[in-house]
């Protein structure tokens, strides 16, 4: 009797605990913020998604602009950068999808009818936009997004450390590797490319004289130059001169500011923060030539506003985009230069933005114009992920670059076939 | 449906005048009570578990890209894609290695903790709470602490500071897969998070082993310590052990949070769920292929669980003991 009841107790208690746990988990998953504001202002309610910009004041600024708009009640969701893509893509399938959101131009969103055609609001001011920013948002003659900011990405370095180590600004990948070795001390690592190195994938390809896709939307990254580049990156990764496992990712200039590294790959947005931390002890340079026949390169990233084509308020959302990102030049300039530094895609604004006229900021603009590569709308998230896998496999692990690229080719071709037939 | 403690059951029930006819209307009906107690749970289970599983099953036969209401039927193409995908199959291997290690380790650690705490003469409640507390911590929060503070790759990370005292070079615990230090990070995080919960289960079971058994054993000449543990304690814990191993195995299959947060954007150390997320469900939005993978995984979990039940006798009648 006693033994029997004992085992009863055991099993029940175990299962009860397990079910309790399961139920608690289920409850925790419920609830949460759907992003819809209950405050019923006059007119329409719009929800917009932004990834969390790192600079102080950015969230307040976006909310300030939204508040100034009187034709709709615009709610902003500020989403951690690491989760932004997944959260955006997942919610776009549901009724809780944002009415408008920022993202990069990617053709799959157009092919699947997720983003609305914005040609009619961009067309009248088309000539005032950087032509490359129009081109990267155009599919079959229609313009699908409004560029808010252009963000060139390049290397930032500590001048004093370069002087002390007797290092010149590198123009080839080999020189960069040498510099990293000379700059590495017991306290400071020579170079920081981010913990996963993924931000330098595209510049490395361009600097090898290759590209992601060619004009016919075929694979253009699988070249001998790129393979050589991957091998060099592997050598760099294992050299001990790279900062790895840093607490902040490379979009955040903290590693450079705190003296953890002498060179960091980052973006133009970080300039005000670096200026505050390091004074004038810093400079910028583009991604060096991967191979001797290549050319230095800069990735001209950035963010654009898109309207969810399946939203109930497409017209209202378009009107808001037009009001803020086309008509309100004062806010556009504030957004581009008051927090982090970004290059305004509007030529008229770029010309008048005084903060970008001097010092390193001016140099950043020069690199943007001289070495910049813009987004290719046919190069989608799944393809980006495939090349990230190449880097993970062949740079952080020691898989043969040729084999890793073959694997990426299969994945990219599967995508290309679905998108372009 | 007795809710009294089982200890009471062991005692002879006090003589009670039983009512002549237990007619108490609806509330007396066993059928009504059955639905009353199981209903809410079943509804939740249907909405949040079974419906999504069925939907996945449906999706897995369609080309569902950027949509969950597809119309292009593709038959078993998604299954072929997932099963011929080296990465997905590789992740099943990753899982097996991970489970083979983490399940026995957590089992042993939580049993060890339970034995220690159970023998305490004072401050037992304190230690029980201390060891149980990590269960309340989210995997994501723990991962971030492990990643950014304890196993940070820079010179001021906790582990690197300690190693620095002995003159050992900084180690990039998570960034560099060679040597695979990342397993150390993952295993310690998971042990810290899980051991306390299973310890409580073991303590409950330990307290239910009747003292008479130990007395009888000691009269028969069993030495306290290893002999008693091996011949009395462990066999008495069999039901709990089986349940714990089952729960651990399911938890290992479902591993996601700490892998996702600690090893972001790697191609190694991906359990099946993380692989599915990267391959199909996350940014690529290939819900057809993703669902096919999920269905394969579900079938595997069911098979392994049933097999394990068969081997360890979970859910069999009392006479099996």
Structure description:
The complex is a heterodimer of chains A (421) and B (321). Chain A has helices at residues 2-29, 58-68, 84-91, 107-111, 119-122, 131-135, 159-165, 173-183, 201-207, 224-238, 254-257, 271-278, 314-327, 329-337, 347-352, 359-371, 381-396, 401-420; strands spanning 44-51, 72-79, 100-103, 138-139, 142-143, 146-157, 189-192, 261-267, 283-285, 298-307, 372-374. Chain A is of the alpha/beta class and 421 residues long. In chain A, strand 1, helix 2 (58-68) and strand 2 (72-79) form a beta-alpha-beta unit. In chain A, helix 10 (224-238) crosses helix 17 (381-396) and helix 17 packs antiparallel against helix 18. Chain B has a single domain (78-315), classed as MetI-like (MetI-like fold, Orthogonal Bundle), CATH 1.10.3720. Chain B has helices spanning 6-10, 30-59, 77-83, 86-119, 124-132, 139-150, 158-165, 182-207, 211-219, 226-236, 238-253, 257-262, 272-281, 287-312. In chain B, helix 4 runs antiparallel to helix 11. The longest helix of chain B has 34 residues, at 86-119. The interface between A and B is large, with 53 and 53 residues.
Oligomeric state, counting identical vs distinct chains: heterodimer
- DSSP E strands of chain B, number: 0
Domain module tally of chain B? 1
CATH class categorisation of the largest domain in chain A: Alpha Beta
Identify the most extensive interface between protein chains.
Answer: A-B, 53 and 53 residues
